[in-house]
Amino acid sequence: MSTLTSPAYHTAMVNNLLRIVLVFAMTLPMLILYATSTLGPVLSLDLKFDITWLGYLIMSAFGLAAILSLWAGAIVNTIGTRYALLIIFFAITLAFTLIANTQDFYGLMIAAAICGIAQALANPVTNLLITQQIPAEKRAFMVGLKQSGVQLAALFAGLVLPGIAFQYGWRVAFGVIVPVALLFCIATLYVTPKQPTKSSQAPTRSFPNSLTQWLMSIQFCVGLSLSAFVTFLPTFAMQQGMSLSLADSLIGIFGITGMLSRIVLTPLGSKLADESRLLFILSAIAAGAIAFTMFADPEHHWCLWVGAIGVGLSAVGTNAIAMSMLIRDSAFGPVTTTSGFVSVSFFAGFALGPPLYASLANYSGSFLLGWSTLIGILMTACILTWALASARRQQETAQLSARISHSS
């Protein structure tokens, strides 16, 4: 039997394709955020809307994603992984087709909201696939790899989309995503069984326990800071005299460092007794990186690069670590349900971050108040990580006491 036709070779090919599908199930839904950031000035000029409206565009995507995430885990449990993945890729196909043909800002908002459907399902379905089809010893790495897909979107939007837009127009830049999403609709049929894989857990109307609530609060703060930072970094950079192409490169370097952060830090976090301390360190570094950003001026563009790299290496990794915590520790609850809960808070932060930042910028007449606010929010996240660590210790102590009492 030829090696190319052997069952082992076929299995290896399917497993590799599964990994690619998992990565792009995270990449494509988040592309709307980074594409809006890098091409926002061009969209604003062509469709004639104020640049600060970008905040409300992002809010339409992540606001709907936050609402749908309340039921996303139950939806994935009910319809199974195959249909959930198909919905994700079809929603992206529809959204980017609409963007490429829209004539006004409201068309952009509708398309962004459609992306919110895909964003809501992405974490629950990919986390469920990992628990079902990836060996336990490889799950932490796989979580980091698939979460790096979010930053792959930033890399693509920062380094590739502007070149396409300048050469062929922004409509073509958005349009090239459509055939890619359709290809992944087809790929989904090869990596999921004909009988859709569903969770063995019945859908439940549960509420997050105390551990999950603390993690949700942390992710809300990080999501708010990240979305505002990424949305307005290129615009702020251009205010400091940086060219549009170079400002978009900031998002590209942010994407590269974010991918490294998620791939490297997630397995590292899984080896720690409690990842909460790592979340504290990363949130603190992100606050420092934004502090560098706010002091940028036409003579100190290096502050912008330090900010993009610092936030990419730190805050970006926290969401992957959070998802790994949910898969690793059953104390948080069922993985699909808790993934949905954490996504609710993360997306809610993403939805509120840009309009909050825009409002502060309009109120103060500059971006400095917005940067200061983001630093304060990240410092709040640091405090919340200590609360999460304390809650985990108390729960472990209570469980140990219960076991001792039971054995005696």
Automatic annotation (TrEMBL):
<keyword id="KW-1133">Transmembrane helix</keyword>
<feature type="transmembrane region" description="Helical">
    <location>
        <begin position="277"/>
        <end position="296"/>
    </location>
</feature>
<keyword id="KW-0812">Transmembrane</keyword>
<feature type="transmembrane region" description="Helical">
    <location>
        <begin position="53"/>
        <end position="76"/>
    </location>
</feature>
<feature type="transmembrane region" description="Helical">
    <location>
        <begin position="214"/>
        <end position="237"/>
    </location>
</feature>
<dbReference type="Pfam" id="PF07690">
    <property type="entry name" value="MFS_1"/>
</dbReference>
<feature type="domain" description="Major facilitator superfamily (MFS) profile">
    <location>
        <begin position="18"/>
        <end position="393"/>
    </location>
</feature>
<dbReference type="InterPro" id="IPR036259">
    <property type="entry name" value="MFS_trans_sf"/>
</dbReference>
<feature type="transmembrane region" description="Helical">
    <location>
        <begin position="302"/>
        <end position="327"/>
    </location>
</feature>
<dbReference type="InterPro" id="IPR050189">
    <property type="entry name" value="MFS_Efflux_Transporters"/>
</dbReference>
<feature type="transmembrane region" description="Helical">
    <location>
        <begin position="243"/>
        <end position="265"/>
    </location>
</feature>
<dbReference type="InterPro" id="IPR020846">
    <property type="entry name" value="MFS_dom"/>
</dbReference>
<dbReference type="InterPro" id="IPR011701">
    <property type="entry name" value="MFS"/>
</dbReference>
<feature type="transmembrane region" description="Helical">
    <location>
        <begin position="83"/>
        <end position="100"/>
    </location>
</feature>
<protein>
    <submittedName>
        <fullName>Predicted arabinose efflux permease, MFS family</fullName>
    </submittedName>
</protein>
<feature type="transmembrane region" description="Helical">
    <location>
        <begin position="150"/>
        <end position="170"/>
    </location>
</feature>
<dbReference type="GO" id="GO:0022857">
    <property type="term" value="F:transmembrane transporter activity"/>
</dbReference>
<keyword id="KW-1003">Cell membrane</keyword>
<feature type="transmembrane region" description="Helical">
    <location>
        <begin position="339"/>
        <end position="357"/>
    </location>
</feature>
<feature type="transmembrane region" description="Helical">
    <location>
        <begin position="12"/>
        <end position="33"/>
    </location>
</feature>
<keyword id="KW-0472">Membrane</keyword>
<feature type="transmembrane region" description="Helical">
    <location>
        <begin position="369"/>
        <end position="389"/>
    </location>
</feature>
<feature type="transmembrane region" description="Helical">
    <location>
        <begin position="106"/>
        <end position="130"/>
    </location>
</feature>
<feature type="transmembrane region" description="Helical">
    <location>
        <begin position="176"/>
        <end position="193"/>
    </location>
</feature>
<dbReference type="GO" id="GO:0005886">
    <property type="term" value="C:plasma membrane"/>
</dbReference>
